[in-house]
Automatic annotation (TrEMBL):
Site positions per UniProt: Stabilizes the basic form of H active site to accept a proton: 100
GO molecular function: peptidyl-tRNA hydrolase activity
Active-site residues, Swiss-Prot/TrEMBL: 22
Enzyme Commission number: 3.1.1.29
Protein name, per record: Peptidyl-tRNA hydrolase
Subcellular location: Cytoplasm
Enzyme class: hydrolase
Function noted in UniProt: Catalyzes the release of premature peptidyl moieties from peptidyl-tRNA molecules trapped in stalled 50S ribosomal subunits, and thus maintains levels of free tRNAs and 50S ribosomes.
Subunit structure: Monomer.
UniProt keyword terms in alphabetical order: Cytoplasm, Hydrolase, RNA-binding, tRNA-binding
PROSITE patterns named in the record: PEPT_TRNA_HYDROL_1, PEPT_TRNA_HYDROL_2
Length: 195
């Protein structure tokens, strides 16, 4: 088994979706890429951009990460992620998926291993492709829409002005949570981030 971790940010490709609540996973991968100083490049499997780096100080032999942004729509994300996992010989237990979560208030994070898809099309697609939901999740809260706004419209709408001011802090915390999961494990990460 590989010592590599696959860190997947869920989102929809294209500039029209860039500011959507559904794209928090892309934003967190972008932050990790910035921290590690390795640009995203198209992967030979086709439908993903990846950056490979070691976590820790430059020159250290910390855990190897493959940071990925699938270039498919949310409901088809399982195929590209499964192709990457196969290519790098990574088991689901070494995958961290970053995604938006309706049932958690905006600005709040939760980390966990396994679970259902809770109606999230990206998670549904991943579970279908892997035959299991036993991968790590960094769940970035977006809250539920107020009033009668349709959930699909809500997740595909941009953050509010107030939220946009707070968003960098949430992205930063989610990136910290990913690093903590890989370096310190789930228990310590949950103690720190699932407050």
């Amino acid at each position: 088994m590989s010592d590599v971790w696959l860190v997947v940010g869920l989102g929809n490709p294209g500039p029209g979706y860039a500011g959507n609540r559904h794209n928090i996973g892309y934003l967190v991968v972008d932050e990790l890429v910035r921290r590690l100083g390795t640009p995203l490049r198209a992967h030979k499997t086709g439908r993903a951009e990846v950056a490979e780096a070691r976590l820790g100080t430059p020159g250290s032999d910390g855990p190897r990460l493959v940071l990925a942004r699938p270039r498919s729509y949310m409901n088809e994300v399982g195929g590209p992620v499964k192709a990457l996992a196969t290519f790098y010989k990574i088991e689901p237990s070494r995958i961290v998926v970053i995604h938006d979560e309706l049932d958690i208030d905006f600005g709040t994070l939760r980390t966990k291993l396994g679970g259902g898809d809770n109606g999230h099309n990206g998670l549904k697609s991943l579970r279908s492709s892997f035959g299991t939901g036993d991968f790590y999740r960094v769940r970035a809260g977006i809250g539920r829409p107020s009033g009668r706004q349709d959930v699909a419209d809500f997740v595909l709408s941009d953050y509010s002005g107030v939220e946009r001011k707070e968003l960098p802090f949430q992205v930063d915390s989610a990136a910290d949570a990913v690093e903590s999961l890989v370096l310190q494990g789930l228990d310590k990460t949950q103690q720190k981030f699932n407050s």
